[in-house]
Amino acid sequence: RPASQPLSEDSFYKDEGVQWHPTIGASKNMLGWDVAPFGIYKLARWVSQRYAPAGGIVVTESGLPLEEKTAEEARRDVARVCYIKQYTQQLSRAMAEGVDVRGYFVWSLMDNFEWREGTTPRFGLVWVDYATMQRVP
């Protein structure tokens, strides 16, 4: 999200008083979102300290949108592998410091339709040929 784009009045972030801003030093993904693995470490520590959730912390969506046009391109999924590795390493770091992390789910198993973006950003671990619906791991 560009820093110049204001939050809508009915957004969750506005309700929670979140100030949306770019992360200094972070790279950007194809949608312009920050890629900052250290952020998940800081967030996990903050949630643990602030709320001490009895069931631990479960990350329910963590993924990298890519513009993969072919199955061959998707098979060389180095960027996604690096993303997942960096984010899980930061969670491991938090866990080593006592944060109770119980789960991490990648978004998503297969490429899907994103309500705002359509089928262009591909988040899936499995690439989908939308013309034939063939799945390619």
Give the biggest beta sheet: 2 strands, antiparallel
Q: What is the count of helical runs?
A: 4
What is the straight-line distance between the termini? 30 Å
Given as residue ranges, the uncertain stretches (5+ residues, pLDDT < 50) are: none
Strand order of the largest sheet: 1-2
Mean pLDDT reading: 90
What does this structure look like?
The chain is of the alpha+beta class and 137 residues long. Helix content is 31%, strand content 16%. It has four helices and six strands. The protein has helices at residues 12-15, 37-51, 71-75, 78-96; strands at 27-28, 34-35, 57-62, 101-106, 127-129, 134-136. The strands form three sheets. Strands 1-2 form a two-stranded antiparallel sheet. Strands 3-4 form a two-stranded parallel sheet. Strand 1 and strand 2 form a beta hairpin. The chain is globular and about 45 Å long. The chain starts with 11 loop residues before the first helix and ends with a strand.
Give a brief description.
The protein has helices at 12-15, 37-51, 71-75, 78-96, and strands at 27-28, 34-35, 57-62, 101-106, 127-129, 134-136. With 137 residues, the chain is α+β, with helices and mostly antiparallel strands.
Tags for this entry?
16% strand; 31% helix; two-stranded antiparallel sheet; single chain; 6 strands; 4 helices; two-stranded parallel sheet; 137 residues; globular; alpha+beta
SSE layout and pairing:
Blueprint: H1 12-15, E1 27-28, E2 34-35, H2 37-51, E3 57-62, H3 71-75, H4 78-96, E4 101-106, E5 127-129, E6 134-136
Parallel strand pairs: 3-4
Antiparallel strand pairs: 1-2, 5-6
